[in-house]
Amino acid sequence: MLETKFTPNYGPDNADVAVIEFFDYMCHFCQQSSPVLEKAIAENKNVRTFFKDFTIFADRTPISGMGAKIGLYIFNKYGQEKYYEFHNKLMSEAGRAMKDRKDYTPSNLAALVNGLGYKEILDQQGNFLLTVEMRDQLQNVLDANMMLADKLNYSGTPVFIVMNMKNPQNKTTTIMPGAPDFYRLQQAINKAKGN
Fold first, then answer.
1. Percentage of residues of the chain with pLDDT beyond 70
2. Residue 34 burial by CB count (10 A; 0-12/13-18/19+): exposed, middle or buried?
3. How far is residue 101's CA from residue 103's CA, in Å, rounded to a whole number?
4. Quick one: fold of 9-104+130-193?
5. Closest to 104 in 3D by CA, of 64, 68, 73
6. Is 49 helix (H, G, I), strand (E, B) or coil?
């Protein structure tokens, strides 16, 4: 779960605590928990967050899988800062559209991605410009995440796992299905630190 080559992550390499989130960009509760996670990241400098795309809504909306593939591509090509910027913007925009009962479409996603300067990913209508081979590689990562979630018996999003990175133990690990408030997430981080 803590591998860093194919899992977008944000935070220091030598962090004491890992926050692992299984999420879907089109999950309402994931969108709700995104600002909570942002605040926890900002207030806990010794935490590394791992973002596991768990695209459970891919059959209902193309944005689920498209957003995940784009995020993986940005992380692998441009690094964690650019990924984190994209991730937060997509969570915010998709969440706002859902709240307003509007569809978040591939062309909306294209406007976001192109507005961030990644013109090699989507055309203005939201069609992929990446090669089929690249899209297949990204899909392989998503498939591996789905298998991991299945192995862990996760069927919904979000799921947060908060654990000590240097000395993981059951007594300092918290698994939270659903959207935690800041207090609950901070408690889990403190527990993982051993406080």
1. 98
2. buried
3. 7
4. Glutaredoxin (3.40.30)
5. 64
6. strand
Domain range annotation of the chain: 9-104+130-193
Contacts (Cβ under 8 Å, ≥6 apart) of 33: 21, 158, 160, 179, 180
Give CA–CA dist 146/155, Å, rounded: 9
Instruction: Pick 20 or 3 by higher pLDDT.
Output: 20
Report residue 30: phi and psi, to 5°: -65, -40
Question: What is the Cα–Cα distance from 161 to 136, expressed in whole angstroms?
Answer: 28
53-66 pLDDT, tens digit per residue, is 999 999 999 999 99
Alpha-carbon span 95 to 36, nearest angstrom: 14
CA distance 12 to 15: 5
Query: What distance in Å separates the CA atoms of residue 29 and residue 179, rounded to the nearest whole number?
Result: 6
HSE of 144 in the Cβ direction (CA atoms, 13 Å)? 13
d(CA 126, CA 22): 25
Other residues' Cβ atoms within 10 Å of the Cβ of residue 12: 10
* Among the listed residues 193, 175, 187, 192, the one whose alpha carbon sits nearest the alpha carbon of residue 22: 175
